[in-house]
């Protein structure tokens, strides 16, 4: 074999697709526009990290939505796809751990460096993240008052939020699985009893137990993100109010006790 024959010119074998065109890199890499003038060094990091979060939120909605669908389609037959829901929820957990750790990167920014461009950001705030709120709704925390508190969202974003409020949540999917596995799930009391049954009889209800643990893990990781975010916020802006107009850390701390699945947490006390 000659040297010429062994040399492969990647991307020149007839295909039109390239790495950059497939990933839409020209658009992606041209989407970081600084508000500060002269440019503040750390603003690129600030924009990049928020964009990365939004990409992961999109992925989480994709995975959690499919997990919900798989649970909602449970029939009780051994061929149903409850295992797929569990598989996807495991992926959700891994991504959520990345989201918690990612705060470390932003925390390399000092409060002084943040102040170089912070005043330019108001009234924009993470509070306006539509996908973040969609994730809360899809998980089961459907607080419609948040939709009314959004300012300046597009008609399409409004539609997404309304749809999330109307569609079944992960919790609805889980309740459906309980029924499909012969466990009563018509009321909260029935769910409490059924969960105690599953917890004490894991060989018969292995799948139900594993799924409930996967949901609890999702809940715990969401709480970890909220806790990590508020500590970072306190380090960055202390007791100042948020660019979104809230009381800042005080508002964020008020959200820490939120639970997606209170019945699963309660179960611990009843075992
Ligand atoms: C310097 C960094 C950051 C600061 C100082 C900060 C500050 C705040 C503050 C004060 C709030 C309360 C709402 C307001 O009045 O603005 C908030 C909410 C929020 N932030 Fe951040 N944030 C930072 C970074 C991030 C990042 C990287 C994300 C990732 C997406 C994020 C996502 C959110 C979300 C989703 C909320 C709404 C939380 C809720 O309603 O429970 N923030 N942030």
Number of strands: 0
Q: Mind describing the biggest β-sheet?
A: none
Distance separating the two termini: 71 Å
In one word, what is the shape?
globular
What's the gyration radius in Å? 23 Å
Strand content bin = under 5%
Q: What structural class do helix, strand and pairing data support?
A: mainly alpha
Q: Give the bound compounds.
A: protoporphyrin IX containing FE
- What's the tally of helices? 14
In the predicted model, the low-confidence regions spanning at least 5 consecutive residues are: none
Short characterization:
With 271 residues, the chain is an all-alpha fold.
Explain the overall architecture.
This protein is an all-alpha fold and about 270 residues long. The chain has helices spanning about 5, 20, 25-30, 45-70, 80-105, 110-120, 130-140, 145-150, 155-165, 170-180, 190-200, 205-235, 250-255, 260-270. Helix 4 packs parallel to helix 10. About 20% of the residues are buried. The model has no long low-confidence stretch (mean pLDDT about 95). Protoporphyrin IX containing FE (HEM) binds near residues 53, 229, 242, 243 and 248.
């Amino acid at each position: 074999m000659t040297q010429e024959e062994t040399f492969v010119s990647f991307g020149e074998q007839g295909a039109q697709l390239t790495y950059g065109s497939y990933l839409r890199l020209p658009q992606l890499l041209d989407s970081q526009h600084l508000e500060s003038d002269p440019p503040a060094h750390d603003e690129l990091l600030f924009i990049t990290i928020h964009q990365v979060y939004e990409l992961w939120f999109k992925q989480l909605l994709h995975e959690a939505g499919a997990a919900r669908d798989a649970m909602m389609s449970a029939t009780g037959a051994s061929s149903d796809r409850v295992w797929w829901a569990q598989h996807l929820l495991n992926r959700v957990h891994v991504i959520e751990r990345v989201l918690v750790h990612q705060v470390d990167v932003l925390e390399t920014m000092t409060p002084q460096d943040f102040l170089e461009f912070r005043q330019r950001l108001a009234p924009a705030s993470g509070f306006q993240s539509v996908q973040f709120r969609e994730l809360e709704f899809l998980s089961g925390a459907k607080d419609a008052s948040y939709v009314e508190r959004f300012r300046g969202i597009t008609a399409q974003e409004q539609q997404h939020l309304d749809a999330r409020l109307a569609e079944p949540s992960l919790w609805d999917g889980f309740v459906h699985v309980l029924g499909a596995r012969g466990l009563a799930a018509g009321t909260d009391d029935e769910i409490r009893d059924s969960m105690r049954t599953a917890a004490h009889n894991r060989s018969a209800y292995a799948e139900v137990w594993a799924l409930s643990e996967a949901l609890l893990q999702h809940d715990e990781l969401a709480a970890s993100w909220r806790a990590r975010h508020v500590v970072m916020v306190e380090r960055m802006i202390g007791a100042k109010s948020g660019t979104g107009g809230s009381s800042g850390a005080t508002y964020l701390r008020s959200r820490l006790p939120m639970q997606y699945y209170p019945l699963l947490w309660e179960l611990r006390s009843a075992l």
